[in-house]
Structure formats: C-alpha cells, structure tokens
Write a structure and sequence with these properties.
The complex is a heterodimer of chains A (329) and B (296). Chain A is α/β, with parallel strands linked by helices. Helix content of chain A is 36%, strand content 19%. In chain A, helix 4 links the parallel strand 4 and strand 5. The chains are: A alpha/beta (329), B alpha/beta (296).
C-alpha cells in the first residue's frame, strides 16, 4: 500500500482529480526560488526561454538572465567561465541539444574543470509528443551518467522538479536535471521528503519492486494498485537521483521482494534500469525487467498514445512485474 | 619605440623568453612527447604576459582580483609551465615531470592540479567562451580585472569559437582581450590549406570586435597592443599575433611537422638525431649572436 510517510496527494490513482503540470514548470519556479535566496544564481538560455520556463526568472531578475542565442556549446562554455568565477549558472535548453549537442563542452569544461554548472534538459522523453524523434531526448541520462562528478536528477512531477532545482543550486557540483514537456500528474506534495541521492519508497510491497523515475512513476503507482487487486503486493520506489544512486534502498528492496522492474522514459541502454542493474548484479542479483525505450527512436503522436505504443503504459508495467516475479528462482 | 615598456625592460624580457625556450626544449626532450613549434612561437607573448602585463601573484595564485589568463589551445601549455616556473609559481626542477605519472604538469593543463592554471583545456574552440563567461561575470560585479584568452589559429576552424565571438561582441565585453597565435600551421598542415581562415581580421570586425595585428615575436609590439586593448571601451579586442612557429630554431621554423612532436622523437630521420636537443639548445643560446662561441 501507499507509504503514508511519502505524503503523496489524496486520490493519487484518479488522474482526473490530479493537477496536471509539466516538470519544466517546477524548474521555472525553482529557478526563481533559488534566485531569491542567492544572487550568485544566474540563468542562461539558448533561445528557448518560455519553453524551458526560464522566463519567470528572466522577468524577475533581468540582470541575471543571459540570452546566448542558438548556441548550446557556447552556453556551456560561458556558464563554465561564470561558475569558475563564482556564480551558480543554470543552462536551459532542450535535452537533445543540451546535454546532447554540447556534450564535449560539458565533459571537459564543466566536469573535468569541476565547476558547479547546472544543466536543465527539457523536452526529454517520448512524451515530448508531436515534435517527433529529433526533439525527443531518449539518451540524455546515459550521456550524463557516465561522466565523472556529474549528478543526475529526474524529477517525477512539477513539485519535485522545483525541489530538485532548488537543491541543485546549492549542492556545489555539476548537475543535470531532466525535465518533461507534457503536462503530467502532480502526485507529490510540498511535504513529500526530498533529498538528493536518497530514493523514496512511495509504496510498500513484498512480491516485487518497481524502481522508476520521472512522470512514468504515476503509471507505476497505478499499476501497483491494480496488481494489488490481483493479489500481487508490489512496492514502488522513486529513484529521482540516478547519480549518485541510492544503493542501500535499492539493495534492501531487492532483498525484500526478489524481483525488480525499472521504469523510465529513456533508452533501456544506459539509463536508470542500467544503473539499478549495476548495483544489484554486484550486491544482490535478482530478476529485473526493463520498461523504457527499446533501442529505437521516437516519432510524432500525443504523449499518452506514444507512452502506450512504446510499451510504458500501465498494462505493460503490470506485465513486466508478473514476468519478473515468474523468473524468481 | 614603445610607450608602455622601456628598451631596457624589453631587452630583459627578450632574454627571459629565450631562457623559457631553453627550458622548453629540455622539458620536451625529457618528456619524450609534446608540442614544440607553437610553444616556441609563443615564448615571447607568455613572457610579456607573466613579467609585464598580468596583475598576478605567484605566491597567492587565487587572489580575487587577479587578471585571468585562459589558455584555450592547451597543447602549448609546456611554454606556459616554463614561464610560470620562472615567475615563481613552482620550482624550475618540477618542469622535468611534464607529462609523467603523478605530475601536476599534465600534458594538457588541468585547473584542479596546478594553482595558477585557470581552466582545464586542450579540446579546441573552448577557451573563448569560458573567457567570455569570466568577463561577463566580472562586469556584472563591477570587477576591474581583465580576462585574456590565448587561442591558436587552427581552432578558428571550430564553430564554437564563433559562437563565443558573437556572444562577446553582443555583450561588448571590453574587459576581454583575445590573442590569436597566427602561426599559420596546424597539425595536418598549413592553415590556409586545411581550412582557409582569411580574412580573419575582417571576420572579427564583422563580429563587433576591435582588431589589432602585430608581430607576435616582438615584445614591444605586443605590450603596446595589450595596452591599446585595455583602452577600448565599447568592444572586446582581439590581437592577431603573427608568430613564427618554432621561433628561435631555424630547422623548425614554419615546418608544420613540428606541431605535435618533441625534439628527437619525430617520425622522420631528420627528427631522430640523438644530439638534436643539444643542437637546438646551442642555437637558442646563440640567438642574435649573444654567445657566438657556442655556435662554433
């Protein structure tokens, strides 16, 4: 059942009663909140100010907002220089371009250089929808996860995105925040615990555990509830920080349940599922099924139909849980 | 004659630059790898920087209001290391550790390893944007320090360089001076064969920069240009410094094959003479006929 300590919203399973907001909205709010707290916070944007919701910060702190034009490589470089000087820069764009196009600048000039630039990649995942494959970032978690020193966060809703943005401002490290374009259910609350590097148990269970990140976590919670009706007791863990990953929580969940399903809106190669598998294969190997994009590109469509068509809907998650359980020795 | 440096001081710096070249040949020979030509060509500018232009303190490399020297083309870092050692950042003997395991003197410079190195660099086309970030932040805070960015001409091929040039022009970063080592060579050949850069002067002007062109091996000319740059209020300035790659050693000058190899380690017979480093050192010591006997 739903973990009361997670302080999730009431009626969590009824999508029609939940507020719908994109995680990028939480990013915009978090930027303003961080900017109010500390005037070292600056925001750079590559000609996508409204799309990334950086415009609230730009309106409130125009002297700390820097428009760089369609130049993601330079955006990463300028931010590196500003962070080296002592600022706390956030760079905002679509994830396909940043950290996609400017990957080498992030590796060399932010991470080897070891300066605390915050990279916000919006429009990540298949749920970008009608824009199609070119704009649906499905590889960004993998790109960021393999770079030493980089922190990787994937918030599950707008409220968590705001908390993640604020926390990232003050963690002193290069940090990637992955954001979505589509409106998605807001199911956490201001009281839901959030700590970088600490996974949260959203639902307890003993037969299997779903470890997910991003907006698909809502599907995971619905799937777990439906499975309960079928007599399967399935836990759900929000692994919002993919790096450093919360090994302890993941290992304990694997020990308790003996079957894992990872859920993410990302290629199954190199994302959260891979990170979970790395932890478990070293410490406590159990059967794992991978919900995500199966080594292919996206296409145009509306977000919900794409999520279903690409095998990340509630039904697909339920099947994966049953399969993982059936593979237990 | 320069308005900004006395004849005597300029002569002192010329001698220092030559000492730096000698250290460079010794360190590259010891390391067995590294970039000779560009490093020799930039000895004069680095010497002028550390001994006349920069506001810096080798004993307090992190002082807040120091001028920032961003080296974009990190591969010529050996000459920077040599001049930094001479300026007192670390012992001269440490130069022998260049490129060796455990050294602070990495093959391409790393910020976190050696105090006084502002940025990690090497991958080309990345210095100007970082320098622009420093300059932008300094302007926000009303800081008076200057940011200098040393670039190669080869990295003018890189698109990111021009993204950064456009940015600095837009924001009128007058506290930024870029210096391009216009030595006309890059690793695969002569720049105008690999990817023509000219008219480089007109390109930067079109990006709203103030452009100066000088003989980059003439210390007086460089000091004058650096001072003029500081006086330009509305624009960033780029100094296109025409240098001779391999300057000081006739066998190397203008030969692009010396871009990325050390004395005695080249791919062709001519580069494999064991006595080559000694010969180069002898030639450097007799530059301008200062020690005629050693040449005989």
């Amino acid at each position: 059942m739903v973990n009361k300590e997670a302080r999730l919203v009431e009626n969590i399973l009824d999508k029609s009663k939940l507020e719908m907001l994109a995680t990028r909205v939480g990013y915009g709010k978090g930027l303003v909140q961080a900017g109010e707290k500390d005037d070292r916070v600056v925001v750079l944007c590559a000609d996508l100010t409204e799309s990334t919701n950086s415009h609230w910060f730009a309106e409130k702190f125009p002297e700390r907002f820097i428009q760089v034009g369609v130049a993601e490589q330079n955006m990463a470089l300028v931010a590196s220089g500003m962070a080296n000087y002592g600022k706390i820069p956030f760079i905002s764009s679509y994830a396909t371009f940043s950290p996609g196009r400017n990957n080498e600048q992030i590796r060399t000039n932010i991470c080897i250089n070891n300066v605390p630039v915050k990279i916000a990649g919006s429009h990540a995942g298949i749920s970008v929808g009608p824009d199609g494959a070119t704009h649906q970032a499905l590889e960004d978690i993998a790109l960021m996860r393999v770079i030493p020193r980089m922190v990787v966060i994937v918030p599950c809703d707008a409220i968590e995105a705001q908390k993640a943005t604020f926390a990232a401002a003050f963690n002193g490290q290069p940090t990637y925040i992955r954001l979505g374009r589509a409106k998605s259910p807001v199911f956490t609350t201001q009281d839901t615990p959030f700590e970088l590097g600490k996974a949260e148990i959203f639902r307890d269970g003993k037969d299997a555990v779903i470890i997910g990140c991003g907006m698909l976590l809502h599907n995971a919670l619905v799937a777990a509830e439906e499975l309960a009706g079928e007599g399967i007791d399935c836990a759900v863990i929000n692994s919002h920080t993919i790096k450093p990953i919360d090994e302890k929580t993941i290992i304990e969940a694997a020990q308790k349940t003996g079957a894992v399903v990872s859920v993410e809106e990302h290629q199954v190669n190199g994302g959260l599922g891979s990170a979970v598998a790395e932890v478990l294969s070293k410490n406590y190997p159990v059967p794992q099924e991978f919900i995500g994009i199966q080594d292919r590109f996206g296409e145009s469509g509306n977000p919900n139909e794409l999520v279903e068509a690409f095998g990340m809907g509630v039904g697909s998650i339920k099947e994966a849980v049953k399969k993982a359980i059936s593979r237990k020795k | 004659m320069s308005q900004y440096i006395s004849d005597k001081k300029a002569e002192e710096l010329e001698i220092k630059a030559n000492e730096a070249r000698e250290l460079l040949i010794e360190m590259l020979t010891e390391a067995g790898s590294g970039h000779t030509a560009g490093s020799l060509g930039m000895a004069d500018i680095f010497t002028a920087m550390y001994f006349h232009i920069l506001n810096h303190d080798p004993k307090n490399p992190e002082q807040e209001d120091r001028d920032r020297l961003i080296l974009s083309n990190g591969h010529i870092t050996p000459i920077r290391y040599a001049v930094m050692a001479m300026a007192g950042y670390f012992p001269i003997e440490e130069l022998k550790t260049l490129r060796k395991f455990g050294t602070r003197l990495q093959g391409h410079p790393e910020k976190d390893r050696l105090p006084g190195v502002e940025t990690t660099s090497g991958p080309l086309g990345s210095g100007l944007g970082q320098a622009a970030g420093y300059a932008y932040a300094a302007k926000m805070d009303g800081k008076k320090f200057r940011t200098y960015c040393l670039m190669s001409d080869g990295e003018q091929d890189a698109g990111a360089t021009w993204e950064s040039a456009m940015f600095a022009g837009k924001y009128k970063l007058s506290n930024l001076t870029a210096i391009i080592d216009r030595n006309n060579i890059q690793i695969d050949g002569m720049t105008e064969n690999i990817m023509p850069l000219e008219n480089l002067h007109a390109k930067y002007e079109a990006f709203n920069w103030h452009v100066l062109e000088i003989d980059g091996n003439n210390i007086e000319a460089f000091v004058d240009a650096a001072n003029e740059a500081a006086a330009i209020y509305e624009k960033p300035t780029v100094i296109i410094a025409h240098t001779i790659p391999g300057k000081g050693i006739k066998e190397i000058e203008f030969d692009y094959r010396w871009h990325g190899i050390p004395p005695g380690a080249g791919p062709e017979d001519i580069f494999k003479k064991s006595e080559q480093a000694q010969k180069f050192l002898a030639e450097l010591r007799t530059l301008d006929g200062k020690i005629e006997s050693e040449h005989q």
